[in-house]
Amino acid sequence: MKWSKRSLTIFWVLHSWHGILKSTLLRRENIMKLTSMDTIKNLKWALRKQIKARIAKLSHDTLLKQSILAAKTISDLPEFKNAKTVGLYMNLPSGELPTDEIVKTCFNFDKKVYLPRVTAISRFNDTKRFEKQKSILHFLSIDNLSEARSLPERGRYKIREPEFKSDDSGSVVNDLLQNNEKLDILFVPGMAFSSGCERLGHGAGYYDDFIKRYNEKYHEKPLLIGLGLKEQLLTKENGEVLHMEEHDELLDNVVIVDTVYSRR
């Protein structure tokens, strides 16, 4: 079949327009994705601000009472009773469920406890997951409740963090991943939680990053349990919706004081 010059010209014009149209649609799709991501980030920021204001109204006694109830709820969980190693965290100086009572419960039940320390990514030549990443979480074991209570505050958030412990050769002996140890449970903090076990973090992405690193190393995750105050549970009745992004990790359970929500 022979093509006339006119037919060839029409073909190439249509072909070119198809390419231009396809490229335009792809650009528009990418712009819409970026716009959607920006919208979600703005919604998350607004929700953090809303929850923070709600928690700020709580008295110290209210926080302690909720903490004691949460520790009792955790101690009754079958998964906790069967666990040997637990990842926990020391709470922020304000605006968060106090965790001292939960740490105490862990040691009372003879659990091996690991706490996070924000560590410069250059210290152990950890792999960056994104270009501007400067620090990650290293979970370090502690020996007892007294050690937990005497930990120094570090960083801009003033969180009590554990020390790296080394043997005579200088090798770190209490780092979870460096020593190829696993967690049975990882308790995860957050700004807000849903009954469907969705979590809104503080925005730094430390826990999402650690969970992904753990999963890459062991091809599994520990049981992920969120811990929160009653005021941190989002309700549809109040029109509160948590918009998740692709990198956000879903939890297995959420403990809100005396209530346990499960995704399974």
Automatic annotation (TrEMBL):
Q: Which UniProt keywords apply?
A: ATP-binding, Nucleotide-binding, Signal
A GO CC annotation recorded here is: mitochondrion
Which Pfam families does the entry mention? 5-FTHF_cyc-lig
Biological process per Gene Ontology, one example term? folic acid-containing compound biosynthetic process
Q: Which reaction does it catalyse?
A: (6S)-5-formyl-5,6,7,8-tetrahydrofolate + ATP = (6R)-5,10-methenyltetrahydrofolate + ADP + phosphate
Superkingdom is Eukaryota
Does Membrane count among this protein's keywords?
no
Which top class of enzyme applies to this chain? ligase
Question: What range does the record give for the signal peptide?
Answer: 1-22
GO molecular function annotation: 5-formyltetrahydrofolate cyclo-ligase activity; ATP binding
EC assignment: the record states: 6.3.3.2
Keyword Transit peptide assigned: no
* InterPro entries attached to this UniProt entry: FTHF_cligase, FTHF_cligase-like_sf, NagB/RpiA_transferase-like
> What PANTHER family does UniProt report for this protein, alphabetically?
5-FORMYLTETRAHYDROFOLATE CYCLO-LIGASE, ATPASE INHIBITOR/5-FORMYLTETRAHYDROFOLATE CYCLO-LIGASE
Regarding protein family, the annotation reads: Belongs to the 5-formyltetrahydrofolate cyclo-ligase family.
What is the name of the protein in this document?
Answer: 5-formyltetrahydrofolate cyclo-ligase
The major lineage groups are:
Eukaryota, Fungi, Dikarya, Ascomycota, Saccharomycotina
